[in-house]
Write a structure and sequence with these properties.
The chain contains 8 helices and 2 strands, in the order ααααββαααα. It has a two-stranded antiparallel sheet. A hairpin with a 4-residue loop joins strand 1 and strand 2. The radius of gyration is 19 Å and the shape is globular.
């Protein structure tokens, strides 16, 4: 049986390279050791999360049998794959690693505030995940269909993974504006739940392969992009230009 080779990994890397350039240019890292090392670790953790999911999938759902004998509806199958196998599982692993990186390299324990560089960790964990996932999908595709899948994985899959984890990272920054620890935790938890829902809804629309689902999911991409760009301007650009000053005794409306 043919195994994934260096050329296959190059193709997988090419599916996330455009988005990596977009994030790098938009954020303009200072190239300090924490940011660079954090980005490298984020890519490794993204890779690791994909590998762990592939290995643990049979253990998590040993009885996820959707054969005709079980008479399971197409709707049930799609919902299970979209919200459980993809949404909850993938986002749990990715966000777990994003939180580790954010607390180690992007959190001030004295002020209890997250640094803007948490968006870098979220973005590059997503790209590390997409890199390996896309490599596996494209590798398994027949030669005559590889190019079409390459375009689809670059535009849709890499894009949505990036957007979902950017949204979550921005919620980490939004927690900075909460006055008490419980409100901060609720904000972060909401970011996680939103990530699961975003992932699940998009996959639910895309898995059946219907044109209407593709168009609706594309509209969602556009909407999330607008949301991310607006929050990016408010929480990244403005904060990097003017150091953030938060009154810890009052809650600032987001």
């Amino acid at each position: 049986m043919k195994e994934i080779g260096f050329y296959d990994y190059l193709i997988g890397a090419a599916t996330v390279l455009p988005w990596a350039i977009v994030i790098w240019k938009a954020y303009k890292p200072k190239k300090g050791w924490q940011e660079v090392f954090g980005i490298i670790l984020a890519l490794v953790f993204g890779w690791l999360s994909t590998d762990l999911i592939l290995r643990l999938h049979p253990i998590f759902w040993p009885e996820a049998d959707f054969s005709p004998k079980k008479k399971v509806s197409l709707l049930t199958q799609t919902a299970h794959m979209a919200f459980i196998q993809a949404g909850i599982t993938e986002e749990t692993f990715k966000i777990f690693f994003i939180m580790i990186l954010s607390f180690v390299f992007g959190y001030d324990r004295k002020t209890k505030l997250f640094s803007p560089n948490v968006v870098l960790f979220g973005a590059f964990v997503a790209m590390g995940f997409s890199f390996i996932e896309n490599t596996h999908y494209i590798f398994r595709e027949p030669e005559e269909k590889k190019w079409n899948l390459f375009i689809a994985r670059t535009i849709h899959s890499s894009n949505i993974h990036l957007l979902i984890n950017l949204c979550f990272s921005l919620f980490l920054l939004k927690s900075n504006f909460k006055a008490d620890d419980s409100s901060k935790k609720v904000t972060i938890l909401f970011g996680f739940v939103l990530a699961v829902l975003q992932h699940g809804v998009v996959d639910f629309l895309l898995i059946p392969g219907a044109t209407i689902g593709l168009w609706i999911s594309t509209a969602m991409f556009v909407g999330i992009w607008v949301w991310v760009v607006n929050d990016w301007r408010e929480l990244i650009v403005s904060i990097k230009e003017v150091p953030i000053k938060i009154n810890q005794t009052s809650e600032i409306t987001e």
